[in-house]
Amino acid sequence: MNFSKNIRLLRKRKRKTQDDVARALNIKRSTLSGYENEVAQPGIQALIAFSDYFQVAVDSLIKTDLSELNERQLSQLENGYDVYLKGSQLRVLATTVDQNNEENIELVPEKAQAGYQRGFADPEFIRELPVFKLPFLSEQKKYRTFQINGDSMHPIPDGAWITGEFVMDWLALNHGTPCIILTLNEGIVFKIIENHLKEYKKLTLHSLNPLYDPYDLPGDQIKEIWKFTHYISQQMPEPAVPRENILERINSLQQEVAKLKGHS
């Protein structure tokens, strides 16, 4: 049973002493010490009390070795995202970690997107994706990078790599949020959302390119949502003014600099 080391780990992560926890649970410190050192075994009421205190399900305290979870998984658990507590409401993500048990960022190239649509929840498929690291991103969040195609999100260029943060609570997304969405029928789409899931059980998807009309996506067609973080591209974005105007302006500036040098 993992109970003893789990409650010790959770207590230390909360920066509580044995006296603090014993006082909160109305038990003796020696009793808590006995639990943590496997000298004593908790009864049902004690298990429930520890579950309520740490906001972690009894099953997790007993069955799961929490020390094997990475930082993001532990943080989610401590914030109430426990599969045993949430049941089917929790979106369990297939993911990969490096040799230090730290989250990878998996790459989903365009050629792998059909497979991703079928295998997004399959740990074996996710394990085959290429991975990389971006040290400036939070270790408390999960990221994945998708290659987009087409011009519906112009001026973001065709073939750009879009990195997104995994979203567990879809209802918390604000209107106007750019998102990568894995859909049941369309595969992966990158759009600006209007969030009507709570009222009408749908998202309205908008493109940056005004040539594309917005359309509704029913909630039951959504498999995953990743909130836009940044994009990487080998192409320069197109200028906001015609190229000819920029060249004329550069030429004019060069002439003005030459005149100034002539007067100096």
How would you explain this protein's 3D organization?
- This protein has 264 residues and is of the alpha+beta class.
- The chain has two domains: 3-70, 434 Repressor (Amino-terminal Domain) (Orthogonal Bundle); 105-232, Umud Fragment, subunit A, CATH 2.10.109.10.
- The chain has helices at 3-13, 18-25, 29-36, 44-54, 58-63, 71-78, 83-86, 113-119, 123-127, 197-200, 243-263; strands spanning 105-108, 131-132, 143-147, 161-166, 177-183, 187-196, 202-206, 215-218, 222-232.
- The termini are far apart.
**Within the largest sheet, what's the order of strands?**
2-1-3-4-9-5-6-7-8
Strand content: 15-25%
CATH topology of the largest domain: Umud Fragment, subunit A
Structural class: alpha+beta
Instruction: Provide the domain count.
Output: 2
Low-confidence segments, given as residue ranges, are none
Distance between the first and last residues' Cα: 85 Å
Helical segment count: 11
Principal-axes geometry comes out as: elongated
Mean pLDDT: 87
Rg, nearest Å: 26 Å
Give the topology string: H per helix, E per strand: HHHHHHHEHHEEEEEHEEEH
CATH class of the largest domain: Mainly Beta
**How many β strands by DSSP?**
9
CATH architecture of the largest domain: Ribbon
For the sheet with most strands, the description reads: 9 strands, mixed
SSE map:
Layout: H1 3-13, H2 18-25, H3 29-36, H4 44-54, H5 58-63, H6 71-78, H7 83-86, E1 105-108, H8 113-119, H9 123-127, E2 131-132, E3 143-147, E4 161-166, E5 177-183, E6 187-196, H10 197-200, E7 202-206, E8 215-218, E9 222-232, H11 243-263
